[in-house]
Amino acid sequence: MSTAELDPVFAAALRELLVATAEDAPRVRRRWRWRLGPGIFAGLTLVAGGVALAAGVFSPPGAPLDTPLGAAVTATHTGSATIDLGPRPAGATDVSLTLTCLTVGTFDFPNGSSVTCSSADLREPPLARQASEVVPLTPGIDNVTIGTSANASWTLQALYVNRVTTHWGINASGQTYGVANQNGTPDLIAVVIDQGKTQGYLEASELNCASGGDVQSIAQALAWDKQNRNISIPVYESDGTTIIGTFIIGGATGSNTKTVPLSSLSLGC
Amino acid sequence: MVEWNRDEPAAWAAALDNDGDAFAAVFDLHRDRVYHHALRMTANVHDAEDVTAAAFLELWRRRKSVRVVEGSVLPWLIVTATNLARNLARGLRRYQALIAVLPRAEDARSAEDVALDQIEEMRIAAQVREALSALAPSDAALISLTLFEHYSPAQAAVALGISDGAARTRLHRARTRMAATIEALATADRDDTTKEKSR
Fold first, then answer.
1. Cβ of A6 and B109 within 8 Å?
2. Using CB atoms, which residue from A14, A20, A216 is nearest to B102?
């Protein structure tokens, strides 16, 4: 074998990985494609009937509480630009950024999150094209930089806020409950089901297991994907025992998709 | 049926729509060029394989912002492989776990396993590599694209997102600097050889 050729075993495995990677990406066109920055809890694939509870919609334990300070600064630019936020009010900890895309492009927030706007998105009203992030302030720096792809135009509204992270609740069994935040993930994770009508909690360990948390190799990951199934797990009250509903995990759709309860599988996690 | 290999723009467009086979076709089309370049940059088979894998995984991760030059993503891959190879540890960190589980042929080869008649070629390659590593990252990518991969300065400029004029100026400067480094290394090598012979 010559060193000038890529090892065929390695090449075949890499090729398989690339196919799986490309096909694993969300197929459903979302209005906004988000890539969350480091440290933010993401990675849930959800189907109709359940949505993860976004911080700020309700205020479950552990959610951040933002108090606006001063007046908003608004600026419009084409391409990457740095916006001066003006003097920092006393008590400001973070800056709340709301970006509206005016053209097609990719827009990077200072915290590593980014958002992509397509031509279809541009046909939506401006409110539907808004993306928001709350970014911690850096000592001595009173500006924010938005990076963009070439010739991408945007409007940014920036507002200083005082952010306080509330505490998780603790139930009678000693389990923490609430939303994931910079302190980590509670034992019971807040969710809403029934189109937002019911608020409840998922066991973090059950969620992890049903999301493929025990997958350790590409072969296992590919086998997991090929099962074409969704897994349901119970939704509890904050006591962690009273079951009030079911939460479905997995993006599988189609006529031969099956949804199976986690308790019926022996996944070893 | 679309002939992927003759139609990279169509393959790339389909790949962006989550067509795994189309993405694999882009891999098939460019894997050897990317691997050869990685080998040139690292002189180590294992590292070159890692760089190749990471370059294609980066191609997917950054697919929204990849610069396509005349319908091809190869220049972008070469630039990315150059940057990854220059800082192996940092560049590969994101994909370490994924790449680690990829199987390899049992008779692990190394760049040292080459015939004796390739030694002179290797000596030159080592000099080029050292000279490349002395350049700024963007200049190393510019040299890789033009000198090794035979892209025009105008095409390289598009791949790097700089103006044609800036590419030409920087290319001239980088070539001069590289030539000086290689000349110095070659002189040092000759001196070593002379000393060996006079013993």
1. no
2. A14
Residue A200 near residue A217, CB atoms below 8 Å: no
Picking from B47, B75, B103, the residue at the C-terminal end of a domain is: B103
SS3 assignment for chain B: CCCHHHCHHHHHHHHHCCCHHHHHHHHHHHHHHHHHHHHHHHCCHHHHHHHHHHHHHHHHHCCCCCCCECCECHHHHHHHHHHHHHCHHHHHHCCHHHHHCCCCCCCCCCCCCCCHHHHHHHHHHHHHHHHHHCCCHHHHHHHHHHHHCCCCHHHHHHHHCCCHHHHHHHHHHHHHHHHHHHHHHHHHHHHHHHHHHHC
- Does an H or E element contain A115, and which? strand A114-117
Strand partners, A154: A77, A101
Could you tell me the CATH number of the domain that includes residue B39? 1.10.1740.10
Q: What ipTM was estimated for this complex?
A: 0.82
- Which residues partner with A96 through β-bridges? A134, A159
The answer to whether position A143 is within a domain reads yes
Domain hosting residue B188, numbered range:
112-199
Q: Does A28 touch chain B (CB under 8 A)?
A: no
Q: Are residues A138 and A188 in the same domain?
A: no
Say if A17 is an interface residue toward chain B (CB within 8 Å): yes
Q: How far is CA B148 from the centre of its chain?
A: 9
What is the tally of structural domains in chain B? 2
Mind listing the pLDDT tens digit for each residue in A43-97?
232 222 223 333 334 567 888 788 899 889 999 999 999 999 999 999 999 999 9
